[in-house]
Write a sequence for this structure.
């Protein structure tokens, strides 16, 4: 999620340039959906994840199409669902194996779909989307599989949301120094807010929910802040290359689902690794 530096408000909007009531309402609704599914039936939460990431996949497919890059949505979505199931019931080896199988499926699919012109371009883009976000999202299932998996997922989501929220608030209140030309509205002050929020939330939740040490949660939070920021910048690079502002508009006040998933998929694998080591 991109933060905003302090400045004059656009006409008809808030000082941040976003519809904040709509954004807050959508955020609370998503949080309720996640928590209810997560703590009732784990498999239902995986369905929610698959649906959300599936929308993100479609957004990327459509965005790539604006530049003439042809990615077949159906096999990518099938691979997404298969990788979630493989990771949850089979573990990491099955997740990797399923990814390889569907990567080959995409190469063969493209071979018979549109001739030789643009084959390398389209096949590369197809495997890219199968990896980002589909494969990365499979690590949600790996987080969820243990007995305390619901708590692990809450820690993962909470530290990532804390990064976005802390960075957004600090950027609006104190942002003065841009971090990168890739995303001029992202500031060093906002990044400091992300790190602070993530460190505090990580230390709190890892000790409370998982019985870990406070320093383990703080380390996890600090790493999540850095990687969530990198996830935002990666998506900004994709949008700049494609010449588009947002990947979608399905969420009022937020944009597309990939505009919300960018930091989550970037932090997911390292958070899974640290929690596997610590807990």
């Amino acid at each position: 999620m991109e933060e905003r530096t302090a400045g004059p408000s656009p006409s008809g909007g808030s000082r941040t340039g976003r519809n904040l009531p709509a954004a807050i309402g959508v955020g609370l609704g998503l949080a309720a959906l996640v928590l209810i599914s997560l703590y009732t039936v784990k498999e239902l939460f995986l369905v929610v994840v698959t649906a959300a990431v599936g929308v993100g996949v479609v957004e990327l497919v459509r965005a790539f199409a604006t530049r003439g890059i042809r990615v077949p949505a159906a096999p990518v979505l099938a691979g997404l669902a298969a990788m979630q199931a493989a990771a949850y019931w089979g573990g990491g080896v099955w997740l990797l194996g399923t990814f390889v199988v569907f990567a080959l499926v995409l190469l063969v699919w493209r071979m018979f779909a549109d001739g030789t012109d643009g084959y390398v371009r389209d096949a590369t883009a197809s495997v890219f989307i199968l990896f980002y976000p589909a494969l990365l999202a499979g690590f949600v299932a790996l987080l969820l599989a243990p007995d305390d998996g619901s708590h692990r997922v809450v820690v993962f989501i909470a530290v990532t949301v804390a990064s976005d929220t802390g960075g957004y608030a600090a950027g609006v209140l104190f942002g003065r120094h841009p971090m990168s030309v890739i995303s001029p509205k992202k500031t060093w002050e906002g990044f400091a807010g992300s790190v602070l929020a993530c460190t505090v939330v990580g230390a709190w939740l890892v000790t409370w929910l998982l019985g870990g040490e406070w320093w383990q949660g703080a380390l996890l939070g600090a790493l999540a802040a850095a990687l969530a920021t990198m996830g935002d910048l990666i998506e900004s690079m994709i949008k700049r290359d494609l010449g588009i502002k947002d990947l979608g508009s399905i969420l009022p006040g937020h944009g597309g689902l990939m505009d919300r998933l960018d930091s989550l998929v970037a932090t997911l694998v390292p958070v899974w690794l640290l929690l596997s080591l610590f807990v």
User: Anything to note?
Assistant: The CA atoms of residues 37 and 216 lie 27 Å apart.
